[in-house]
Specification:
The complex is a heterodimer. Chain A is 0% helix and 50% strand. By secondary structure, chain B is mainly β. The chains are: A mainly beta, B mainly beta. At the A-B interface, strand 5, strand 9 and strand 10 of A face strand 5 and strand 6 of B.
């Protein structure tokens, strides 16, 4: 499976600021996704990152709050904008490689908003 | 809409013993895939095992096996010869064959005691 890295691994931010999380894969992948895991909760899909076009957002998530870019087949960013304490979560990217149906996850970014 | 239910929030087992984690799901799709992921305290989501719905044979991966009952929409995970490193949160997940979006259960926290 692909090797997936995320930066930063953790951060503590002030409310009202924005943070951009990077997801880098060591090989080209077909699909990339972003998930949120709130404290003590399961994972919720934020959006599918589409290469070269706008991301596809799930219900309850909007582009103004969570802008996503995917300039190529190995890299994507998720920005958490105008943060509030409710945005404190683990954010994970996942990928699917061509010809498979299995998602592999990055190590996650733990975000704390004060 | 598809749903995944894990009815056991927490479980514990003695080292070297066998434990079974339960999962039920609901979907109207005929083509879908089921997964078990584990999330240790490091927060990395790790694929444990996958099952294609069209396959009757239960998947196995070393000490991990599933009992897939399609008619009952049940997908339990059996861990044999439990090890301390198996201590983690275990998530059952479901994806449709066409769009790859994962729906997760709420998770079961498994503790392996020495």
């Amino acid at each position: 499976s692909a090797v997936i890295s995320q930066k930063p691994s953790r951060d503590i931010c002030q409310r009202g600021t924005s943070l951009t999380i990077q997801c880098q894969v060591d090989s080209q992948v077909t699909m990339m996704f972003w998930y949120r895991q709130q404290p003590g909760q399961s994972l919720t899909l934020i959006a599918t990152a589409n290469q070269g076009s706008e991301a596809t957002y799930e219900s309850g998530f909007v582009i103004d709050k969570f802008p996503i870019s995917r300039p190529n087949l190995t890299f994507s960013t998720l920005t958490v904008s105008n943060m509030s304490p409710e945005d404190s979560s683990i954010y994970l990217c996942s990928v699917i490689q061509g010809g498979t149906d299995t998602q592999y996850f990055g190590p996650g970014t733990r975000l704390t908003v004060l | 809409a598809q749903t995944v239910t894990q009815s056991q929030p927490e479980m514990s087992v003695q080292e070297a013993e066998t434990v079974t984690l339960s999962c039920t799901y609901d979907t109207s799709e005929s083509n879908y895939y089921l997964f078990w992921y584990k999330q240790p305290p490091s927060r990395q989501m790790i694929l444990v095992i996958r099952q294609e719905a069209y396959k009757q044979q239960n998947a196995t991966e070393n000490r991990f096996s599933v009992n897939f009952q399609k008619a009952a929409k049940s997908f339990s995970l059996k861990i044999s010869d439990s090890q301390l490193g198996d201590t983690a949160m275990y998530f059952c997940a479901l994806t449709r064959g066409s769009n790859y979006k994962l729906t997760f259960g709420k998770g079961t926290l498994l503790t392996v005691n020495p």
